[in-house]
Amino acid sequence: MSETQFDPFGEPVAQSRGGEAAAPAASSTLLMRAGAAVFWLLVAGILTARVAYFDPDFAARFTSLANTLQSILNG
After folding, report:
1. Overall domain count for the chain
2. Which tens digit of pLDDT belongs to each residue from 3-46?
3. Three-state DSSP string of 1-56
4. What are phi and psi of 71, to 5 degrees?
5. What are the C-alpha distances in Å from 14 to residues 7, 10, 27, 32?
6. Residue 37 sits in which domain range?
7. 15, 20, 70, 72: which has the highest count of C-beta atoms within 10 A?
8. pLDDT tens across 38-69, in order?
9. For residues 28, 18, 9 and 26, what is the CA-based torsion angle, rounded to 10 degrees?
10. Three-class DSSP category at 75
11. pTM above the 0.85 mark?
12. Are 7 and 13 in contact (CB under 8 A)?
């Protein structure tokens, strides 16, 4: 009787007669690589946009707006 092996998510791993784990299908590998490429392109795009549009004065303007609203509401 062979031992059943499980992947990290708890699903049983399909095994061949020799006890080796079955290789993933070529389409599955291609889809995984395409998904990883899209993910890293999004990461790079978001980081580039954050660097390009970074406004160091944002916190000061937000604090100024909060102080103005507070003085309007209190006074």
Report:
1. 1
2. 777 778 878 777 766 656 667 788 888 999 999 999 999 999 99
3. CCCCCECCCCCECCECCCCCECCCCHHHHHHHHHHHHHHHHHHHHHHHHHHHCCCC
4. -70, -35
5. 10, 12, 17, 19
6. 26-74
7. 15
8. 999 999 999 999 989 888 787 788 888 888 98
9. 0
10. coil
11. no
12. yes
What are the residues whose beta carbons fall under 8 Å from the beta carbon of 15, sequence distance 6 or more?
Answer: 2, 5, 21, 22
Token output for 12:
């049983």
The b-or-e profile of 5-35 (16+ CB within 10 A means b, else e) is: eeeeeeeeeeeeeeeeeeeeeeeeeeeeeee
Cα separations in angstroms, 20 against 3, 8, 16: 11, 17, 6
